[in-house]
Design goal:
about 20% helix; about 475 residues; 8 helices; nine-stranded antiparallel sheet; 22 strands; eight-stranded mixed sheet; Immunoglobulin-like; Rossmann fold
Length: about 475
Amino acid sequence: MKFHVVILAALLVSTPSYATVRVEAPPAIWGFEPVIRVTGLAPRENVRVHMFRGFVRWDTDDPTKRSGWRPVPITLHAWADVRADRRGTIDLARASSSAGTYRGRDAYGLWWSGRKPGDALLAGVTVNGFDPNSISDSQSRIFVTRNGDSLASASAVGRAPEGLRTVLVADGAINGAFAAPADGRRHPAVILLHGSEGGDRDAAQAIAQRFAGQGFAAFALNYFAWDLKGLSGIPNSHVNQPIELLDQVRAWLARQPEADTQRIGVYGHSKGAEYAAVAATYLPWIDAVAACVPSDSVWEGYGIGDPRNRPNANQVMPAQLSSWSWQGRPLPYIALPASDDRSRYFNNTAYYEARRDADPAAAAAARIPVERANARFLWIGGGRDETWASGAMAQRNDRQLRQAGKARNSELLVYPRASHAICGDGTYPTHLWNDQSTDPRRPDLDEDGRATADAWRRIVRFFRRTL
C-alpha cells in the first residue's frame, strides 16, 4: 500500500521564548510531490522532524520460508535534522537534512526512508512521551521536536486527486480501472500494465487515478489475476497472453469522451514493461512506451498450478509456455524449467542470465525487436536489480534502437545502485521488507527511494512531451 500525506490537524505547543509552532500542509495528492511546512520557529533554529508510519508485514520464523507466515504489525520511523530559514520556517521540499534517515534535499525523504525498530539510525532517537507502537496499520504521524520534546504534531493520511471520472471495468477480458480529468476536454490516453504480481482492482484504480491526476486518460488493465483476487473473466495464469488484447482496450478507450486515442502511450513495470515493449513491435498505433525495470527478451510464462489459484484437475498444460502470443501463436521465449534448482544462484537475476546463456539460439529468437516499433521509448532500469537484469536489458534495448538509426526514439535512465522496486511514486518505504547491505551486489535501499521519485517525475514528463 502506498501512503501519501495530508496534514489533518496540528497539536500546538507554545513556550515563553518561542512563537507557536505549527505543522502545515496542503492536501498531499497521489502522484504529486508531498509538502510539509513548519512555521513559528526561531530564525535559523535547528529542529528534528519525525514521521512514524504503521504497516503490517507478513513474516515467518521458518528459515526455509515455507511455513509459519503471519501478519506482524510494525512501525517505521523516519527523521531529519533541518534548519529553519530567517523567517523561522521549514519547507521540507527545500530544506536540507543534515542528519537522519536521509540526507540532503528530498521532498520524499521522510516517506521512503523510514526504518524498522532496532535500526542503527534510530538509536537514541525518540519523541518524549510518544509510543511508536500506538501507530496502527495505515496510520501516520509527524512530530517536530527540540531536544526530544514535541513542539507540534500532526496526523497524516492521503487521497486520490479530485475532479476525476473513475470507472471500474469488468467487461469480459477488459478488466481494470479507467480514470481521467472530468473537465470536458479530451486527454492523451495511457494504458497501464501491472507486473508479475498480477491484477488487482484497488491497485488498478490507484495507479489510474495517479496518472489521471497528471492530465491523462488512463486505463489500468488487469490482464491476468490470481484466483485469490476474485476477478472473473480473465486468465489466472500468465501463459501465452494475447498481445492483441490491447487493441480491445484501445477500442474501449475510443468510446470514452475524455480519451484522445490519436495519442496513446503504454506504461508497464516489470512484466508489464515486457508486455509494453513486445506490444509496441506489433501495434503501430502505440506512440510512446515508458518501460520501468524492463526486459529485452520474452521469457517463459508462469502461473499454471500456482497455489494462489484454486486447484483445477482438468487444466491442460499447453505445449508452449511463452508469456505472450500473437493471433494464437506463442512467441519464442527463454525457458525457465520447473526442475531447475534456483537456490544455487545468488539471486533470481543470476538464474535468469544463466538460462539466457544456456541456449544462445533460443535467447536470440526470444529477443524483443524494439527497433521495429514506431513508438518512442523511455527505458528505466536498476543496476542492482535482483529480480532480473533490468539495467543491462534497458541498455541493450536502447542500443538496439540506436544501432537501427532510431536514437531519437530512445531515452535511457539506469540507476546504478537501484533494485527492481523503483516504479512507484516515491512515497513507499524502501526499508520495509529489506535491510541495507554493504554487499556491493545488493541494492542500495536509499538509492531506491531517490530513484523511484525521480523516475516518476521523468515518466510524467516523457508522456507529456511525446503524446
